[in-house]
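Q: How would the structure tokens look for this protein?
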Amino acid sequence: MTDEAHPSGTDRVAEVAARREYRDVAAILNVQGDEPFVAAEAVRGALEQVTLRGFALGTAAVRARPDVLGRPDVVKVVTADDGAAMYFSRAPIPYLRDDAEAAERDARVLHHIGVYAYAPDALAQWVALPVHPLERIERLEQLRPLAGGMRMGVAISDVPPRGGIDTEADLELANHEWAAFTSTES
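A: Here is the predicted structure in token form.
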């Protein structure tokens, strides 16, 4: 339904947000397609980064166990003291250089959740930036605005993620969960 040449989901969202009927919205929300079961708390948190906390961009994360650090399928984020994202990576961040800091590192492990909120002008600015080499290397679109100097607030949710859809097995499980969910809604 959008141009197939877009390099990311955010670029697709920007195409839709540019339509006349959406020009007066205060904020735009993007739930990544591979995260259909994202918690409402994470969605609200990302949106509040834009609508209440003064960030032009927002997203969400959950505190995670350190065992996710070695998993490239789990995107990690580190934040500044004000809650702004400093970096996202598939690599283990923060990296533990000295075992003496293990407890401090473990308290800072954040698992990124695939939800974004944008102020309309910030969304337009994001997609006007060229795809950044870090974005290509890590395959993480959120590195483009960070590299371009934009700030993104990160809401910390207490609801653990249900897991994204990254493999055929994940899709099978998601279809089963969706079928069970919709059959109880009737």
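The domain at 9-185 is CATH 3.90.550.10 (Spore Coat Polysaccharide Biosynthesis Protein SpsA; Chain A).

The chain is about 35% helix and 20% strand.

Upvote if useful.
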